[in-house]
Amino acid sequence: MTTLFDVIEVGAIAAPNRIFMAPMTRARGTREHVPTPMMADYYAQRASAGLIISEAIGISQQGLGWPYATGLWSAEQIAGWRVVTDAVHAAGGRIIAQLWHMGRVVHPSFIDGAQPVSASITIAPGHAHTYTGKQAYTQARALSADEIPALIEDFRQAARNAMEAGFDGVQIHAANGYLIDQFLRDSGNFRDDAYGGSIDNRIRLLREVTQAVVDTVGAEKTGVRLTPSSYDQGVRDSDPEPLFVRAAETLSAIGIAHLELREPPLDGTFGAGERPAIAPLIRNAFQGLLILNSDYSLARAKAKIEAGHADAIAFGRAFISNPDLPARLLGALPLAKDDTSKWFTQGLEGYADYQAFTHDKSS
């Protein structure tokens, strides 16, 4: 029987266990979106994860609208990430870069006052985090068909840059209400061209971006993240099951190494209007390695792996305060709690100062 602690091949990556570190924005870069030395310590401390999926990394200035998040479009950013990946590898770990374009949730203050871009002319609900506090989102303009090749090239170049920065692979962020998700779902895509309308048209951008990245770094080093059941940042679909099954079939045909699905537990915790889990349908549609993510306990994670419902589980918050999470789970050791007030601060506290478990030898 397969267990959470068994080795697994993630395309070109040999992972020593199936406890992966989920991508988490932690806002420890500079205002120029360059990684800082403390980030190398943070990721290296968590190198015992079977695979680290990095925080979301902006592919371009146009696509990045989060304070102190990092990018992969400049030489300085590439060099900064190289320090991080070298530290992870020196600690025996494996790390891939999550490639991110935020689309309509980029506030104009990040892009010299320009309009954010999206699939269609829409406004995200709520407020953006900016360097001067929360500000209301503004109306996005629709990307023209003529602009899409340049967008795809930005993803392609970011993948090249990730390889130069020493990452072991990449993951395309097509989830959580960001740009590709805005194209996928009918609440944000009202286009009447080749990128809108039918399911095949709405997944076209995902397919073209994925193929471009695969052509650049190889299918064995490429993955994708989707959130089929979630309602993120005002983005949802009226009929997500056929949409995401078709997306999974398309990604499977391209031959990517992994697909990560974030599906919160459907117990009412995350609000009304949730649909039944789509992951089981995607499990049948996608032939590669399937990673499940969102609020997994040890018991729930073990059950999913042992039942064959997933190949690996990505843990998020548990890795924040437990850098040695695989050892703690293997030994059924207590988990430390994280300090939510320190999630997005720029300091070491609540970031790289959590300690590995130590047994009390005095008792």
Question: In a nutshell, what does this entry contain?
Answer:
The chain has 363 residues and is of the alpha/beta class.
Overall description:
The chain contains eleven helices and 15 strands. It is α/β, with parallel strands linked by helices. Strand 14 (289-293), helix 9 and strand 15 (312-315) form a beta-alpha-beta unit. Helix 1 packs parallel to helix 2 (75-90). Residues 268-274 have low confidence and may be disordered.
Mean pLDDT: 95
Strand order across the largest sheet = 3-15-14-13-12-11-6-4-5
The overall strand count is 15
**How many H/I helical runs?**
11
General form:
globular
Fill in the keyword field for this structure:
single chain; 363 residues; alpha/beta; nine-stranded parallel β-sheet; 11 helices; 30% helix; globular
Topology readout:
Layout (H helix, E strand, L loop, with lengths): L7 E3 L2 E3 L3 E3 L15 H9 L6 E7 L11 E2 L3 H16 L4 E6 L16 E2 L8 E4 L2 E4 L4 E2 L5 H17 L5 E4 L5 H6 L14 H4 L1 H14 L4 E5 L13 H15 L3 E5 L16 H7 L3 E5 L4 H9 L5 E4 L1 H5 L3 H6 L33
Parallel strand pairs: 3-15, 4-5, 4-6, 6-11, 7-10, 11-12, 12-13, 13-14, 14-15
Antiparallel strand pairs: 1-2, 8-9
Helix pairs in contact: 1-2, 3-6, 6-7
